[in-house]
Amino acid sequence: MRGGGSGHSFSIKEVNLIGLAGLIVKNPPMLPRLDPKRARLVIAKIDSILAWENSVENPRDSKFVELGKYLCKVRAGQYWRMENLKSFDDFLEKRFPESRRKAYYLMSIHEHLPKQIKQELPEIGWAKAAELVKVARSDRDRFDGTAWVAKARTMPREEFRQEVEKHLTGEATEASDIIYFKLYKSQIPVVEEAIETAALMLGSDRSRGYCLEMICADFLAGAHASGGNPDVVLNAIVRTYWLLEPKHQVEFLAKVQTRAA
């Protein structure tokens, strides 16, 4: 492991990480057949919306639903190959240089919110729509889009976020703090890619802080798996458990009880 530019270096014992670091794809799927005409049309739509947003003074992001739809098409059809890019992330970095996180939020809005409420979303803004996604993913068939859109219209953004958090957890939002630390420019791409990869695996509705916590928990669980602090391992497992869908939580508990017996 290298120190932050101090000239000192040290090494740590190699460990096997669990969870996020354990995914290996042995047989990757075949590339979809590229439709150049359709790809150019979709990419042109995205560039048109982004150009419009940049040209409008104090834009409301009123076309974010449409933008999310076209981004999903680019990812599904791998239209980014038209520009000789190596990945969809490269496509997003080119058009969202400040943060790709918003792009993933917009795609999540398109993928998880029902069609009947999408026409009302521009009135409440993409940030609140992203909060609606959390409720839709949790409630699934029980999701009352009309009622939640009405709340989003009337509540200030932070109050609405707390309402969503209370609905999901049954309790008020956990106290939070902001932590600052320095990164060299060469380190930023690694950190960004790790957080965005975690967001894809955990759900794009998860906050960057939550994703970072799970990356750290994953590392600590691996580092302490052989003779380290058992409390660290336990905490990492518990946090991972709460990420699972209810049916997978039941399956997990059943396997644990079977092993214990």
Question: In words, what does this structure look like?
Answer:
The chain is mainly alpha-helical. The chain has a domain at 175-261. 60% of the residues lie in helices and 0% in strands. The protein is built from 13 helices and no strands. The chain has helices at 36-55, 64-77, 88-95, 101-112, 115-118, 121-124, 126-139, 145-154, 157-169, 188-202, 208-223, 230-241, 246-260. Helix 2 crosses helix 4. The two termini are 41 Å apart. The model is unreliable at 1-25 (pLDDT under 50).
Tag the structure with descriptive keywords.
mainly alpha; globular; single chain; 261 residues; 13 helices; disordered N terminus
Structural class by secondary-structure content: mainly alpha
Taken in chain order, the helices and strands follow as HHHHHHHHHHHHH
Largest sheet: none
What is the number of E strands?
0
Sequence-ordered SSE layout with sheet pairings:
Blueprint: H1 36-55, H2 64-77, H3 88-95, H4 101-112, H5 115-118, H6 121-124, H7 126-139, H8 145-154, H9 157-169, H10 188-202, H11 208-223, H12 230-241, H13 246-260
Helix pairs in contact: 1-2, 2-4, 4-7, 7-8, 7-9, 10-11, 11-12
Write a brief caption for the model.
The protein has 261 residues and is an all-alpha fold.
